[in-house]
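Fill in residues.
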């Protein structure tokens, strides 16, 4: 994902990544259960919950730093 998006991996620690097969398997399981939202992995779940509780300006600032295209 990061290669296609043009973002680097410096801001995200290696343990936070999931392999594509695991993500697809979890997404297919969620689809079979007719769930429209599937948050994969503990780190992503924690991040999503933190984003809901944090002020919107802070969330957008952090996201802009994380997903800024690398030069």
């Amino acid at each position: 994902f990061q290669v296609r998006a043009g973002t680097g991996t410096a801001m995200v620690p290696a343990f936070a990544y999931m392999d594509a097969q695991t993500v697809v398997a979890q997404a297919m399981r969620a689809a079979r259960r007719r769930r429209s939202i599937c948050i994969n992995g503990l780190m992503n779940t924690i991040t999503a919950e933190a984003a809901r509780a944090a002020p919107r300006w802070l969330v957008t600032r952090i996201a802009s730093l994380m997903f800024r295209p690398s030069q």
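The mean pLDDT is 84.
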